[in-house]
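Hi L.,

As promised, Nitrogen regulatory protein P-II-like protein:
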Amino acid sequence: MRKVRLEIAVNDEFVKPTVDAILKAAKTGDGKIGDGKIFITPLEDVIRIRTGERGSSAI
C-alpha cells in the first residue's frame, strides 16, 4: 500500500474545515484499514524566513 504524508499548518479557525475536507477526500468508504490518520497538534511558533513574520500571520 502506497502511503503519503501531509503536513498542514492552519490558523485555529481553519482547523475544522481543513479536517472536514481531508476526511471527505481521503475516506474510501470500503471499511478497510488504510484511509490514514489525522494528528492535530499546536504549533508553538511559526517564522516566515523571507519576511521575518512570526505567529499566525506567517502561516
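The radius of gyration is 15 Å.

Thanks again for sending the construct details.

K.
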